[in-house]
Specification:
Elements lengths: L6 H10 L4 H14 L2 E6 L4 H6 L2 E3 L1 H10 L4 E5 L2 H10 L4 E3 L8 H4 L3 H10 L4 E5 L4 H5 L3 E3 L4 H7 L4 E5 L2 H10 L4 E4 L5 H4 L3 H10 L4 E4 L5 H4 L4 E2 L2 H9 L6 E5 L3 H9 L4 E4 L18 H10 L8 H15 L6
Parallel strand pairs: 1-2, 1-3, 3-4, 5-6, 5-7, 7-8, 9-10, 9-11, 11-12
Helix pairs in contact: 1-16, 2-16, 4-5, 5-17
The protein binds (~{Z})-2-methylbut-2-enedioic acid.
Length: 329
């Protein structure tokens, strides 16, 4: 990223966070027009950021929106690896991540060096890397996947020997769908999903016995086994439509998703799987970005994603191989 963190502007962020919301939004609207910017927001962002965005979705969907837009500047409200993916697919565009602290524990659990160690342990295995990874790790991988296409990506490979990185819950779930392949699985997790236990979901289900349970494949096995549907955040939007008679849905993923589901299905009830809005299924990194950060990103044109050209070229190959494979759902 080109700009270093400046304590003065941190104070500005604090100052602007106290402006009336309507005033901040009108500053953002003006700057968005003046600078020909598009605002993208992940399904896990806070509600007011999702409401402000030109597009909401998962990281791949948003990166594809970034490719389609004529805007000169992309403000990516999500976490670092997502903004990097948008940059890899759109190297000629300026991509801004509004909050410099928007990282990802799962992406941080793997480095090019640790990936090298795993490759040495599993010679001859093709590396399939989840999109929640740095550009450098993608560049060292054969192909990427998202939670919306992981099964199809693994099936599409001619080889039977796969090294799946970095999420062990997603890897285990994919391995169960594709038992014919030998899949070695790296040891990372998303702490927000991994914290949820089957026992906690069972308690929520006891309170809503008629509810349909939809879980993200980053959840542990005891959670996924209790779910009617296991899918990505985009898949969750489609999954609700499969149950027109159901009124209540228990959602096992980061709770920002519930905002998006309520917007799409105002007549349905969505309950977080831990039974407690924002208690545990809450990614601290997804929640750091506020309206004041979007305003300052546009005003100061910060924090711009900058990547090495060679890394972009190699990571892009892994992403493009993935994009040639149709989504699972
Ligand atoms: O690909 C994404 O955006 C992630 C990390 C999750 C999902 O299911 O949308």
């Amino acid at each position: 990223m080109s700009q270093v963190f400046s304590p003065e502007r941190a104070l500005d962020a604090y100052h602007y966070s106290h402006l009336p919301k309507g005033e901040l939004i009108s500053h953002i609207e003006r700057l968005r027009r003046e600078k020909n910017a598009v605002i993208l927001a992940h399904n896990y962002q806070v509600g007011e950021i999702q409401d402000l965005a030109d597009f909401t979705g998962d990281s791949l969907g948003l990166s594809l929106e970034a490719s389609r837009t004529d805007a000169e500047m992309i403000v990516f409200c999500g976490v670092n690896f997502m903004a990097e993916s948008a940059k890899i697919l759109n190297p000629e565009k300026r991509v801004l991540l509004p909050h410099i602290g928007a990282g990802c524990s799962l992406a941080d659990s793997i480095t090019p060096e640790s990936l090298d160690d795993w490759k040495a342990r599993y010679p001859g295995h093709k590396v399939v890397t989840y999109i929640n990874s740095s550009a450098e790790v993608k560049a060292e991988s054969y192909i990427c996947c998202t939670s919306a296409n992981a099964v199809s990506v693994v099936r599409s490979l001619r080889t039977d020997k796969i090294l799946f990185t970095p999420d062990r819950n997603l890897g285990r779930w994919v391995a169960a769908q594709v038992p014919e392949k030998e899949i070695a699985i790296y040891d990372g997790v998303c702490p927000t999903h991994d914290v949820l236990r089957g026992a906690s979901l069972e308690r929520t289900r006891d309170a809503y016995p008629e509810a349909i349970v939809i879980a993200h494949p980053e959840c542990r096995q005891d959670v996924v086994e209790l779910a009617h549907e296991v899918c990505s955040t985009t898949g969750m939007i489609a999954a609700v439509a499969k149950y027109p008679r159901a009124r209540t849905f228990i959602i096992a993923t980061e709770h920002g998703m519930i905002h998006q589901l309520k917007l799409r299905y105002p007549d349905k009830e969505f309950v977080p799987a831990d039974g407690c809005i924002g208690c545990r299924l809450h990614c601290p990194y997804m929640k750091v970005t506020g309206l004041q950060d979007v305003y300052l990103a546009l005003e100061d044109e910060r924090f711009e994603i900058e990547l090495d050209e060679e890394v972009i070229a190699r990571a892009r190959l892994a992403l493009e191989r993935m994009m040639a494979v149709p989504r699972d759902h």
